What we know:
By secondary structure, the chain is mainly beta. Helices cover 10% and strands 35% of the residues. The protein folds into 3 domains: 32-79, no CATH class; 89-205, Immunoglobulin-like, CATH 2.60.40; 212-327, Immunoglobulin-like, CATH 2.60.40. The strands form 7 sheets. It has a 5-stranded antiparallel sheet, with no helix packed on it.
Amino acid sequence: MQNPLLNFFQISIICCIFLLVIQPSFGELESPKKQMKRGIQAQDVNCNAGLELVIRTNGFAACVRSETAEKMQKIGMVIIPIKFTDLEKEFKAVSASEKEISTIPASSRSIVNFYINDQDLNIAHNGVEVISTKGLFEFTVNGIAINGPEKMIETGPNTGEFYLRLELPESINGKPLSQEDIILIKYLDESDNAGEKRILVKSIPLTSTFAKVETSGGGSRIGHEFTLRIFEPDANRDSKEEDRIPLSLFEFRGEGGIRTPLTNPGFDANSSSLIETGPNTNTFEVKIKIPRELDGKVIHIGDKYEIRYIDRSTPSGTDEKIILKGKIG
């Protein structure tokens, strides 16, 4: 005869094992590799609780325990990650009171323009400094060293902000540069605010276009006005006046074969163009509505749609397709 108490414990153990197997994990973040693949820069990667962000010397991020991070740093396997501003803010001047690297995004077969703030190098306060970069910078692409500029020049008298121009090679070890290759800029700071040596780092994934499209305010609901916004520095031709991007450059694609430019009167746009939000902001907006019907074709709740923009003024000289995907709510 079986012991009832033993049966109870056996069932309890089986239930516990079953719960452990089927219990889903919540709050788990994507791996650093997946985050970087989505365009997140190495220094902006998020780690799960209990793990620290480190950046390997090849420019790729990793999430490790604190003791592992300390060991990796001691043997020179990682560099100290620094947080930086988002893409739009990188085009604006950075504070001269803090040391940091500010870049304009890079594309293959182009130039990386970037700035470093360091008041320690601002010695001649009444003049413009020209500083040798020897011993101050290291440049790599996918972990392979490349030649950088020999000098950097102060942006003006007593600014403490220095401009550098990095020319990208066409290939590395015989392999042409391509989309998502990682450029790593290291600044070997001889003295930080605490008087200690520190490495500032900036990782930049190569891209074919800088344009980004997004919506805000009810963009998934039929008949509700929402803002279509694009960050497009190539269209910013006048730094003192607001520029425009014609609506005809944007196409709406929906289910059932719907293909129509945003100039279609059904969208009830408040302008024939996306208008820059201010002088030199690089951000353009227009307000539109998704109608119930377009060109005799009905749009249904649950339908998927795309808004497409073709960037024909990319630094790489190629036409690049920017697609915003949505779903009718």
